[in-house]
Amino acid sequence: MIKKIISAIAVPLCICIVFASCSNPTLLMPVDSLLSPPLYNSQYEGLVEVFNEKTGSVATFSNPTGGDNLSAINVTDFDGDGKEEAVILYTTSEDDTVVHMSVYDFFGDKWKFCVDFAGYGDKVTGLLFEDFNNDGYTEIMVNWNYSGINNAGSFSVYSTKSMKMTFSEVITTACDTACVEDMDEDSLKEILYVTSGRDESAITRNAELIKMEDDEFKVLSSIPVDPNITGYVSCKAEKYDENCPMKIYLDAPKSGGMMITEIIYWDKESKTLVAPLYDETQGANTASLRYEQINCADINNDGQIEIPVQKDYDNNDTGSTGKFYLTDWVYFDGSKPVYYLRTFVNLKDGYFINLGSLRYSNIYVRELGSSNWNSWIVCSPSSRSVGGNVLFTVTSVSAEKYDSKKYSSYITVMQNSDSVICVSINSKNIDSDLIKKTVMKIPS
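Now predict its structure.
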């Protein structure tokens, strides 16, 4: 199925729409009115005209803030008849606290309104199209949220059984996070989500796996996860090889700037979800705890996700300022960590120092900086005071203050619109090739 996306930028009195297929995207230039039809493609001109007539008042397109579909208008074939249908997300001037979702069908050479739903938030954090029950009709899944309110997330699934696009709401449930994957490996995708509640005086959190059977979703399994978090900031899926289950990695900040990663997978033998890092006796996940909010990542691009775990680093140079931690990137064989890489992570500047590439049992780091630059000075074990045996210095310079002539003797290892990360070498045992293996960008 080929999906086409219309990307709308919602700003007053101006709209920019992109029509994209897999091979032939077309950009439509801005026009004078928010809902004026684009003067290019008559088929989509009719869609915007019908939408404008239906809303009656000035409406604002509402783009999803996350996921793969980041457009306010998405066009796809929901019923497999070879013709396109459209989903439009928007708010109205009368009420901008609720995002609406409208479905339109292209029938008889013109667009026709089918159904409209008032959502469960003032923003959409994800939009997904998936045939959850393999009946030939694609469902619509929307993740909702209210701005500025913690634990105000939910998701809804809308389904149709008719080529007339008579969608109905199948399920809506509150959640802290939700993702869609084929967890039980039966070629149909399920929804894994985490929901929070309260047991007497304590907060509880449970991960639930639901599957669509016929016209409704049923719970396959529910397990407790660490409740002592402030929310979830990322969700990653990993299928390392055919012998390993699909794993979901959820990064969750905790109080005091700390973070954990929850791992969840489906066990085929017991036919239940498993959260191997959650300790029921402690009521917490301490196996993946770190002191800084560093997300898990596939740090070596091998398809397997590593989790950063930290401990205090007590061998700092006497000239250093601030707190340093040793960050070990590990993957978990069951609930046991397997160590892959030891690093120093500079979270603020977005890089890490790979200690495995350096031929020293210990190194010492001190930090110097100003409002426009920040440096980590890396020293060998013989250096225990300022002015010792410096190996190299990593400097982050704001992009607007960066002067290529001033830093001409430095090796640039990373550069973006905000900053430049460059390195000066002070040891004859270190060259530019080694530096590029040692100072690396933190993967997302």
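The two ends are 30 Å apart (CA to CA).
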